[in-house]
């Protein structure tokens, strides 16, 4: 792995673009991030890529298209190693939350090497605050991958934190297919999987809705299909990307006006769901820390 680009603010987020296997077409990006409002030793987030490009090709994501295959386990771990090596050893040992997020370029559930990497993380880093996070669209052809994920979680993270986040984005199936044009697991399958995956007393599985103008999100439909005992709701803005501009998508949750979604959040709470409204630092959009932006910007400059 060779880092060919680095941009951002070390007090917020830095995005790295790396070339793999000496091939100019095999580029992937990863992120070193922290909460600028908290002590840097409190929460440390590393976001890694799992594929070169992405076959899902979501209409709001710059990482979609140009899919050129999977990263290997060692190539995934090399991204984490590179970030860890940039900081004092004490940070790894003392960070209350050391979050390794598989949410950059690629759909992690389409690469078995992600599971191999998950198995190795605890022994490799020995970080007390380790918390892996899988962000997925739940591809329909990844049932075996999800079954193995349950086993990996039970074997390697039974006593620790683990976060699973599933992108739903709309309660309307047609709109959902338009936003994420790849065969996905249906709500009935997801409900049962989430019930089996969740361990009482641990984090609930997050159903993520990146709110998009004109795209329906109906609390009653969510309540009909999902169980608040095992699933929570995560509300985010639709991040501005080149791809979202090309497809005419805009956020329905302005970062400066989260109160516009108060009614939606209150209704979900009435239906029994824990609701998380997650609005990142707007400076991240300028840095280019949204999925695929760094690679795409580098390709455009070239």
Protein architecture, described:
This protein is α/β, with parallel strands linked by helices and 302 residues long. It has a single domain, classed as Alpha-Beta Barrel (TIM Barrel), CATH 3.20.20.70. Helix content is 32%, strand content 23%. It has eleven helices and ten strands. It has helices at residues 73-84, 89-94, 113-125, 143-156, 173-179, 187-197, 219-225, 242-246, 262-270, 283-287, 293-301; strands at residues 2-9, 13-20, 23-34, 43-48, 97-102, 130-136, 163-167, 205-211, 231-237, 275-277. The chain has a ten-stranded mixed beta sheet, with helices on both faces. Helix 1 runs parallel beside helix 3. The chain is globular. The mean pLDDT is 91.
Task: Briefly say what this structure is.
The protein is of the alpha/beta class and 302 residues long. It is built from eleven helices and ten strands. The protein has a ten-stranded mixed β-sheet with strand order 1-2-3-4-5-6-7-8-9-10, with helices on both faces.
